[in-house]
Amino acid sequence: MKPVSLKTALAVSIKAARAAGQVMHANWHKPKRVNSAEAHDIKLELDVRCQALIEKILAAAFPEIPVLGEEGNTGDTSAEYRWVIDPIDGTVNYYFGLPHAATSIALQHRGESVVGVIYDPFTDEIWTTTKGQPTRLNGKIVRVSNRTKIEDCIIAMGFSKSQDNLEKSLPHMIQISRRAKKMRIMGSAALELVYVASGRLDAYVERTINLWDVAAGSLLVENAGGEFYTVPAPGGKLRMCADNGKLRKKLQLGSMLK
């Protein structure tokens, strides 16, 4: 396959993210149809609808590129290029009326993210980047924070509710809570990552997460001067931490991912 224009891919990703975000915002206060409900998660008909809309827009420009998405895959996702999509990251927040959810779109080349777009329709903020370029928020370059003292920092955490994850995560949460300015559990990995990228958070760590949650955000963090660190987890999932490049070792965040 011939090389993809990252400039074009970025423009199409922005168009798709904004379109899905408009659907999210328009339906925010309306009754929502639940496709499935688990103990700690909810899947909405709107998740499926938003992913279909994103795929339609992406396919109009790049019909040959497959999609790996939270709501299903199309084509050969082991291909040289692939889209990685989370149509509504923060579905539980969204379902309960909390305005903290986003659309996340990444283009990957041989497993490496080369385009990243995350759109928050509730604040009308869109974070964008391509490989080798700075991270931008609504067109303006943003950077990670410069904070180095843990007592000055805000740290976000997330963790699945399995017994194993709770047992391994809670001691770290207690330890960090005693040292950091504040702890936050916000419910949208995509937004936590771009908050690190734009200096609103200083670090974010989670023991069990999916690729579509972090494919765009990881590139946005790195291109804003931060660090994104990940290790494989069971079931094809990931363990990850993102920070401003100054805190992972101080906070021993890597040890939480073991």
Q: Could you characterize the architecture of this molecule?
A:
This protein has 258 residues and is of the alpha+beta class. It has two domains: 6-141, Fructose-1,6-Bisphosphatase, Chain A, domain 1 (2-Layer Sandwich), CATH 3.30.540; 150-256, 3-Layer(aba) Sandwich (D-Maltodextrin-Binding Protein, domain 2), CATH 3.40.190. It has eight helices and 15 strands. The strands form three sheets. Strands 4-3-5-6-7-8-9-10 form an eight-stranded mixed beta sheet, with helices on both faces. A five-stranded mixed beta sheet has the order 12-11-13-15-14, with helices on both faces. α1 (6-26) runs antiparallel to α2. The radius of gyration is 17 Å and the shape is globular.
Top keywords for this entry?
258 residues, alpha+beta, Fructose-1,6-Bisphosphatase, Chain A, domain 1, D-Maltodextrin-Binding Protein, domain 2, 2 domains, 8-stranded mixed β-sheet, 5-stranded mixed β-sheet, 8 helices, 35% helix
